[in-house]
Structure formats: C-alpha cells, structure tokens
C-alpha cells in the first residue's frame, strides 16, 4: 500500500486480468490504466473522466469503487513554493540563454 493506495497491479494479476483486457473492455487507454494502478493522478485526463475511469477499473478488478474513488478524489499534496530572486525572473536573461543555446 503506497499513500493509502493498495497494490492494484497485484490485485489485478491475482484475478487473472490483464491491462490489455481491461483496455479492450472499457475502451480506456493503457496509459490511463497504468496511471490508475500507479496512483499517478496528474497523468489522468481530469474532470468527470477520472471518476469514470477509476470506477470502470475498480469494477474490472472487482475492487471497491468508493474506496478507490476516495483516493483519487483527495487533492494531491501541494508542492512547496520555490524561492527565487528578482534576477532569475528577468526575461532578458532567459532569452539570452535560449539564443546562446541555439547557436
């Protein structure tokens, strides 16, 4: 269990179901199914698609939909703010660096 998410790949394999089978049955892209298994919320399409994809995946492996949805509906931890100084935000430095790399 990582961050409250059970090992979905192990559960799926114990049921004898492949990702390709789930993708064929649900018409969900393999990359989205892999993102669900690995708990990568940022790689899902967003909006109502997330809930639909997670529900369909849970049904395909005979897992509790509500529990899986709860994991994917909680917001991901926020990244800490990065402190920068004013000089690093100067657009002219960025353009100069870009132009130097293109030469």
> Looking at the structure, what is the overall shape?
elongated
Spell out the CATH superfamily of the domain at 8-73: lambda repressor-like DNA-binding domains
Outline the biggest β-sheet: none
Radius of gyration: 20 Å
What fraction, in percent, of the residue positions are helical? 55-70%
Question: What would CATH call the class of the domain at 8-73?
Answer: Mainly Alpha
Under CATH, the topology of the domain at 8-73 can be stated as 434 Repressor (Amino-terminal Domain)
Helix-strand pattern, N to C? HHHHHH
Average predicted confidence as pLDDT: 83
Quick structural gist:
57% of the residues lie in helices and 0% in strands. By secondary structure, it is an all-alpha fold. It has a domain of 66 residues: 434 Repressor (Amino-terminal Domain) (Orthogonal Bundle), CATH 1.10.260.
